[in-house]
Amino acid sequence: MRHIGVMGGAFNPIHLGHLMLAQRAKDQFQLEKVIIVPSGTPPHKRAGLLDKELRFEMVAAAVADNPGLEASRLEIDRPAVSWTIDTLKELQALYGQDVRLNFIMGEDVVQSLKRYDRCAEFIALCRLLVSPRLSANSELVESWRKTLPGAELEAIDCPANALSSTIVRAWVKAGASVRYLVAPAVAKIIEEKGHYKDQAETAPATPGAKATANGETAAAPAAEANQPTTSVPTPPGTTAVPAPAPVTPTPTAAPAAPDNGSTTGR
């Protein structure tokens, strides 16, 4: 059976932490490729979220030189609200039953997924590749499996990384270089088009969090979900931006995908 990775999120913008995680998941689990799916229309407007076409342009540029990573327009071209579960169904129909989808997510999403009212349907669609906040051991992985009985679940062996899209946006706004935070092609687009320079920044409730259909916030999988809740690294000559306090989602909150912007939801 062929295995393909799926990594969703706002990617506002995509950064090197996202790319490192995608590449590591591909190599560790011998995935044919990893499909990176920028969110299209979120269920709630979010301050500082670039237009979906602009975010897709950066994702496409970031992976253009890597044949193992692929930018997908599935959610960009979807006229309705973007739900990850719909994306998984579309991908399964596209690739057929001889392909096993592997959904890349962060450790924080394990608990959110447990409370999702379509959890059983979701975990039947894919294997879960979980990126731990710090590092994974057998006890931690077993605890995830107990939380999500019936899920096929594995841990991604990827170094913890404090990089986030929030940091990238803050540094751009402060006039600092993001040369080693994002791919060169993405840095060029941000500089030439002036993305994030004059935007009001409203940080999400947790690193990589986004609104669910119920209006709560849920932690995102993949790179953004790995971040410790410490202060954001500060560009020279600026004031440190404290990280916001975590928010506990309500039992009906649907898990969100990587800054990871698509929402699992209905």
Report on this model:
With 266 residues, the chain is of the alpha/beta class. The chain has one domain (2-226): 3-Layer(aba) Sandwich (Rossmann fold), CATH 3.40.50. 30% of the residues lie in helices and 14% in strands. The protein contains eight helices and eight strands, in the order βαβαβαβααβαβααββ. The chain has helices at 16-28, 52-63, 84-95, 109-115, 119-124, 138-147, 165-173, 184-193; strands spanning 2-9, 34-38, 69-71, 99-106, 127-131, 153-155, 210-211, 217-218. The strands form two sheets. Strands 3-2-1-4-5-6 form a six-stranded parallel β-sheet, sandwiched between helices. A two-stranded antiparallel ribbon has the order 7-8. Helix 2 runs antiparallel to helix 8 (184-193). The longest helix is centred in the first third of the chain and has 13 residues, at 16-28. It is globular, with a radius of gyration of 17 Å.
